[in-house]
Write a structure and sequence with these properties.
2 copies of one chain form a homodimer. Chain A has helices spanning 2-10, 12-23, 35-51, 127-142, 165-171, 219-222, 229-238, 261-267, 274-280, 294-297, 340-353, 379-392, 406-415, 440-460; strands at residues 55-60, 67-72, 80-86, 106-108, 117-119, 149-155, 180-183, 187-188, 195-200, 202-211, 217-218, 303-312, 321-322, 325-334, 360-369, 372-373, 397-400, 419-421, 425-426, 437-439. In chain A, strands 1-2-6-3-7-18 form a 6-stranded mixed β-sheet, with helices on both faces. In chain A, strands 12-14-10-15 form a 4-stranded antiparallel β-sheet. A 3-stranded antiparallel β-sheet of chain A has the order 4-5-20. With 461 residues, chain A is α/β, with parallel strands linked by helices. In chain A, a hairpin with a 6-residue loop joins strand 1 and strand 2. Chain A has 2 domains: 2-200 and 371-460, 3-Layer(aba) Sandwich (Aminopeptidase), CATH 3.40.630.10; 202-256 and 302-369, Alpha-Beta Plaits. Chain A has 14 helices and 20 strands. The longest helix of chain A has 21 residues, at 440-460. The radius of gyration of chain A is 24 Å and the shape is globular. Chains A and B meet through strand 11, helix 6, helix 7, strand 12 and strand 13 of A and strand 11, helix 6, helix 7, strand 12 and strand 13 of B. Strand 12 (303-312) of chain A pairs antiparallel with strand 12 (303-312) of chain B.
Chain lengths: 461, 461
């Protein structure tokens, strides 16, 4: 392992320069104008994989942007790690808020990153993070210390919902066979409090339409005597939480499985300053489900939020209309073992059941995502914890994420293996925002941590 | 009176032709492109007033479009009637739904108007209606039977809020001195059930803004632990009505004055078919304040409606945002003696008082309008009722209007006199909509009714 570390130390500048070249490619999957850039980016990654000593490198077609695949199989008796990452990036908008060109990577020191951070779209999400694995594997190959077989799956549509990845997984199931999936697309709580993401919430997302009269009515002529769809939609939404902020959708909590007391005890070791939390988002007071802490409310408990609402007159000034229709987008974050399809069905039935007789209700369901959990007893979790504790030199604690990465559940369903979410970014790295950046220290620490994961995971098998 | 009736009968075609010429002018006050047409229209009306025998005709400047003034003072000891009307019209949009050109008046028979109706923008609202007065006065002058002094005030900004009329009234207060104001800018319930509008509801209109965090938040990372401004706005709006559909704004009903039992008894004689009412607007069921009929709810009772709501993501598909802000436009219809400024203040205070500590509330008030009522004991009301009963040959009943004509209260405040709302249109005449029309029978009946009003009003003084 000393040799591997030495290789990494002597190649720091080369690794950084190679990452900078990848970051210069505007691989924005949401905008068809950049289609050629995505193809170029896939080719550039394939070339880098080959140069790094990875074999059987291919740019594989999907119904959308291609997947870059590569592998290094050293011994069929050793475990196989599948590295997942994505080379596509979010649009840089609003472009005017960037202090440097999003596709001209720039190194600057910040308060949180006194050793420098690389500013560019995709630096942390996810080019900078998946590239740590490529370089770590290069270091292991070059120092003859690869402890596991390794496969790479780097996709180009994560930022637009990975719509074609499920079909790809089914088609290439054998090729992608693995013992554990390793992903760096999340963050640690802080460098002082490194964490591993042990769970993700699922998602159920719907749009509701409430219809009253068959046309917009004059509020002078009809006001007081007819159902107003906006008022009724507000009544219905208000009734979706009770006074304890529990979700009132019938049977909503039935399948919620409690977190183990061990994991909860570990989570509770994490520092949390409520005043700091409120100040960061400008709130005087917070609300949430009674009986749970803020950290629990955003990680191990399901929630319901209105994400959008509209109806009637939204322009300047005054218009005295009672609209025919009003709309809302409503989503629920789910925890193990809530099933998004079941929850969507429960919500639809409940929402229709609470509608007054005077109005019609339509409910449209969008694609959801399943919750995910990696038990703290999993060999992958234990190996990642040990690897990070080796390089961070701190205790590493489990932390459930509040958001959703639906592909992780899909991996488990199709490939049958668990994913370890070992991210090295920080929440302050401005992912999806202007001035996205990735600390150089985080980048190098990540490259050094990964070989330890390979070593410990191999030893645990 | 026989001579006057004969004059009207022999000049029917001339009157219609003159109205058609006025309707050809696209005097759309909302669109500055038509500014010259409004000036031309004012000049054409002034010319017609002169030709009709009306004296001291002037086109008087305002800060906006001019007012056409004229008078015929026959005897200072006789009462003076001020005729109010407006020569501006609504835009014809959506133009593609018109079956004939909105500014090429066309006569067609309809089910409700078997004797023909004149289709044109402004035919009923209000060129066709104020022109009845010009022609009735012409008939009275030419037959030497004018029973009262008469003044005309025809404005050009009614469809854009009569913003400059208050200043005009103050400036010309002496010139406009009168005993009663007569307005034909409303409708009758039907030709079989003629009605006089004895009241109008007032209006209080506000926009509310509810603010949570200082920026949009990711619903995965924060959902369940922070106040969602949309959910909270819905809670607050839902609480504005109690289970009996009473408005819960503190002291809201304090100044509501009850209708007299005589007027209520008269109103209740009007036919009302609830099934027909519901079918016309496509509703299975209706709601409203407990203990009141639909007719009462829309006329003599105040109401509160949300006219618009918006916040968060309103586009296609799903976005998992907890927005920083949510908005609503909320209006209240007021009845005598509720004061719009007082109600606006009560609402603002109430709305802020019900906000949870976690959010900030801003309330912006728009210009409101006072409610108006004409007692059934007023000489103007009695004269109009008698006049209409003479020509319609039916009992004429009082009907409160649910909408607002703020200028009527302004007249009372500045000029000190009551307005009689003696309209001859029908609600089915498509005012403000494509294919606006005015029945020829209604037009001629109006012209014949007006001299009786002059006669009875003169006799009652």
């Amino acid at each position: 392992m000393e040799q591997t570390n030495n290789y990494i130390d002597s190649n720091k500048d080369k690794f950084l320069q190679e990452l900078i070249e990848l970051l210069k490619i505007p691989s924005i999957s949401a905008d068809p104008m950049y289609a050629q850039n995505l193809l170029d980016c896939a080719d550039a990654i394939a070339k880098n994989l080959v140069e790094s000593g990875i074999e059987n490198v291919e740019v594989l077609e999907t119904k959308g942007y291609p997947v870059v695949y590569g592998e290094k199989i050293i011994d069929n008796s050793l475990p196989t790690i599948l590295i997942y990452g994505h080379y596509d990036v979010q649009p840089p908008d609003p472009i005017n808020l960037w202090e440097s060109d999003p596709f001209e990577p720039t190194i600057k020191n910040t308060e949180i990153h006194p050793d420098g951070a690389l500013f560019a779209r995709g630096s942390a999400d996810d080019k900078g993070q998946f590239f740590m694995h490529v370089k770590a594997v290069e270091a292991m190959i070059n120092t003859n210390s690869l402890y596991c077989n390794v496969k790479f799956l780097i996709e180009g549509e994560e930022e637009v919902g990975s719509e074609n990845l499920e079909d790809f997984l089914i088609e290439h199931k054998d090729k992608l066979k693995n013992d554990i999936i390793l992903i760096s697309d999340t963050s640690v709580l802080s460098m002082e409090n490194p964490t591993l993401t042990t769970g993700l919430r699922g998602l159920s997302y719907l749009e509701v339409e409430v219809e009253g009269a068959n046309r917009d009515l004059h509020s002078g002529l009809y006001g007081g005597a007819v159902p107003n769809p906006i008022n009724i939609l507000c009544d219905m939404i208000a009734s979706l939480h009770d006074k304890n902020e529990n979700v009132t959708v019938k049977d909503f909590y039935d399948k919620v499985s409690a977190i183990t007391s061990e994991e909860l005890k570990e989570m509770q070791k994490l520092p949390f300053d409520l005043e700091e939390y409120k100040n960061a988002i400008g709130l005087n007071d917070i609300t949430g489900e009674r009986g749970y802490s803020t950290l629990e409310r955003t990680t191990i408990r399901p929630s319901l939020d209105v994400n959008g609402i509209w109806g009637g007159y939204m322009g300047e000034g005054a218009k005295t209309v009672i609209p025919s229709k009003a709309y809302a987008k409503i989503s629920m974050r789910l925890v193990p073992n809530q099933n998004p399809n079941e929850i969507t069905k429960l919500f639809s039935e409940h929402f229709k059941s609470i509608a007054p007789a005077s109005i019609k209700v339509n409910v449209k369901a969008f694609h959801g995502g399943k919750p995910y959990v990696l038990p703290c007893t999993d060999k992958g979790y234990i190996s990642a914890k040990k690897a990070m504790e080796k390089t961070f030199e701190k205790e590493v604690l489990p932390l459930r994420g509040g958001g959703s990465i639906p592909i992780v559940s899909t991996f488990e369903e199709i490939l049958g293996t668990k994913s370890v979410l070992m991210g090295f970014g920080l929440d302050s790295d401005a992912l999806h925002s202007p001035n996205e950046h990735f600390g150089l220290k985080n980048f190098y620490l990540g490259i050094k941590t990964i070989p330890y994961f390979f070593k410990y995971y191999s030893e645990s098998n």
